[in-house]
Amino acid sequence: MPDRIISEKLIYKGVVFDVKKKKIKLPNGKIADRDVIEPRKAVAVVAITDEDKVVLVKQYRVAVKKDLWEIPAGLIEEGEDPKEAALRELKEETGYKAKKIEEITKIHTSPGILSGTIIIYKATELVKSKQNLDEEEFVEVGEFGIDESKKVVSMDAK
Q1: Would you tell me which CATH number, out of the four given (1.10.3720.10, 3.30.70.1290, 3.40.50.2300, 3.90.79.10), belongs to the domain 40-153?
Q2: Interval 69-125: pLDDT, tens
Q3: How many CB atoms lie within 10 A of CB 5?
Q4: Of 103, 135, 136, 148, which residue is the catalytic one?
Q5: Which residues of 68-94 are buried (b: 16+ CB within 10 A; e: fewer)?
Q6: N or C: which terminus of the chain has fewer CB atoms within 10 Å of its end residue's CB?
């Protein structure tokens, strides 16, 4: 543990994430509690068709009570290579297979409370096939121009 973390206690152990309470030492020497969500690692895919369209998926997100357009994404299975996870999620959610895929970046989604990272890939040279959704997934697929895709994924989108 880094110097600032004094102790941690597991509060909740889940399938997708754990929650821990951590005691940290602040720069002024005082002690503070922090709740931290520790999710499994995830991947997301910016898939671009030969026509320069961005492939997005629309699904209901219970936490925000809305249907959202997003780039395809999902969790990395135990022992799975992240690039393979990205290819798998792209195929499952959109039906597209990518002949070319490259890592763009890794990001922390909300480092104030989440410890997890998302590895973002760019997928090109796409070949359309059939979706292979999980039993609890209901996903609509759409293709949008670059500017239009920015609008539909915006929090202001209707």
Answers
A1: 3.90.79.10
A2: 999 999 999 899 999 999 999 999 999 999 999 999 999 988 888 888 999 999 999
A3: 14
A4: 135
A5: ebebbbbbbeeeeebeebbbbbbbbbb
A6: C
Rg, the chain, Cα only: 18
Q: Could you tell me if 1 and 8 are in contact, meaning their C-beta atoms sit under 8 angstroms apart?
A: yes
Q: What is the pLDDT of residues 10-34, one digit of tens each?
A: 999 998 899 999 999 998 989 999 9
**Is 135 among the catalytic positions?**
yes
* Cβ-count burial 12-48 (b if 16+ within 10 Å, e if not): eeeeebbbbebebeeeeeeeeeeebbbbeebbbbbbb
Question: Is residue 1 predicted with pLDDT exceeding 50?
Answer: no
- The two three-digit tokens of residue 140, written as one number: 């609509």
